[in-house]
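Q: Start with the shorter request: fold the first protein.
A: Done. Sequence, then structure:
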Amino acid sequence: MKKIFALCCCLLLTSCFEITERIKHHDDQSGEYTLMVDFSKSWLKTKSAIWLEEVDGVKIPNEQEITQKLTDFKSKVSKIEGISNVTTKTDFDRYIFIIKLDYKSLKALNEVVNTLNKQKNQIHFTANSKSFERIASYPIPENLLKDEKKKEDLEKANIVSIYTFDRDVLNASNANCKISPNKKTVFLKQSMYSVLKKSSLMNNTIQLNQ
């Protein structure tokens, strides 16, 4: 998610945002993956920042550049074996950006996330017949956390994961997550500041009913 985070960090100079990772994982290890970056709570500030193209000496990508980055990503991951139905959506009225795709295996999904992060052979998801595991890793410029001026903005921003399964969820290792009443979905929300200091706050091992 390096490019996604780079975009968010630029716009963070003037706005708060929320990143949501949504997965619908099936028993055959295939599934649907959605990544949404949502600036709608501060769309006016975001629009102004993009219009100005620079804030505090940092270049802000314009609408054309954002659209091109998403188009390039779509083209690249569409070539990954086991990945299909890749779509991207840009909403410049509310400033919401969405990536959606289907995966045939977690190996393919791991390759997608590695493409986002510019990493190699990193494992982000594992699963078997009994469990599903998320191993979080969020690349971010080191100087961002050192800037006290950005702390308040980072604390207002959130990272959310929503994972849904075919079978009932028995339990989950992350104490901060919630399981839906129908026991099919696990929800986790953390502040961006906390997660960037400690990525493992988004780690989760989910046990499934046999």
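Q: Next, the second protein, separately.
A: Sequence, then structure:
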Amino acid sequence: MIKDIIKNRIGSIIYVVGSLVRGLSSQTFADKMIGITPEQYLILLLIIENEGVYQRQICETTLKDRGNVARIVDILLKKDLIKKIADSNGRRIFKIIATQKGKDLIQSIEPLDLELRSFITRDITEEELSITKRTLEKIKANVIQNVRLQI
């Protein structure tokens, strides 16, 4: 009975699917010995796609708190996948850019990322995916209007 209640709630479904996808991604990255986690991969990809991004923008885009993003940025710095460049507007403000090593790593992971996305969405039509994305975007917009996040 309780399983059925949880199973039929949209928030529970989103949470469980998200957890399973994160678990599969982590398992796959570990099995393939990628050298970074899926979470680090997504932030590195965001940095590559938004060259010169600020750490605060990463927090806002990913909805991750500052401490978590700072930890990931530090790891990526230590691995020489990104570097910080001082911003002309302030001594303590830095733009973040990917190094060539970071860009090369992302390029090498892209086929695996595509393979994972293909596996996760197999037997789902483009129309179903499109409807799902639109629906989730609407849910996100509804929630964003009322949520109080400290980023």
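Q: Describe the second briefly.
A: Strands lie at 53-54, 82-87, 90-98. DSSP finds seven helices and three strands in the chain.
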